[in-house]
Amino acid sequence: MRLDKFVCKSTSLTKPEALLRIHAGEVFVNGEVVTSEVAQVHEKNTILLDGQELKARPFRYILMNKPTDTICSNIDEAYPSLLNHLDLDNKSELHIAGRLDADTTGLVLITDDGRWSFDITRPETHCPKVYRVGLSRALSDSVANDIKLKFAQGIQLQGETALTLPATLEVITPTEVLLTITQGKFHQVKRMFAAVGNRVITLHREKIGEIHLDIPVGNWRYLTHDEVISLSKI
Ligand code: URA
Question: What pTM value is reported for the model?
Fold first, then answer.
């Protein structure tokens, strides 16, 4: 990790404050002054500030049940950030792995481990995600079967060159379905149903990989060690 990040992760300094201390020659790495914030350091280095050894705080892995009308951003914009629902220190270190639209609810993963979130969200990682979808038009059995087949074969979304990867549709009621996809294209679920002449009215993510949403809306909890590892293995 970069030296400035390490200093922030092991103290209560903000990034500008950490940069000032590094540039002033106050940070020692393995006995040598290091004044470049981009210097790479790791846990095994001995890093001192004011004669005190710095130890980075452990990474945090969080599951939240996102309420509607919140955004997956660290700052408030047209809607408030969902991080307002997290009562934790050093929230600026956290980022959201895999965004949902403002009007989508459900399972969101939040972390300060950039490598983990990169691994689980990169396009080559085909991690299954299950969405509960409310539709504007009721599906007859024959239409549902037709859509199941189309989604299983992959469909052409507007503006995309490749077909979507095979997706699974399970009908719960004529206007409520579970859709499992293994990609995360922009507005993918809404665009998939638009492509088959329907419209998504409500959208809720229930599951990512083996991680189930098991907390009420607006609440959060830390992931277990097994849950963290389970996603890295996909
Ligand atoms: N697909 C969408 O269309 N929106 C989301 O928020 C997530 C998946």
Answer: 0.88
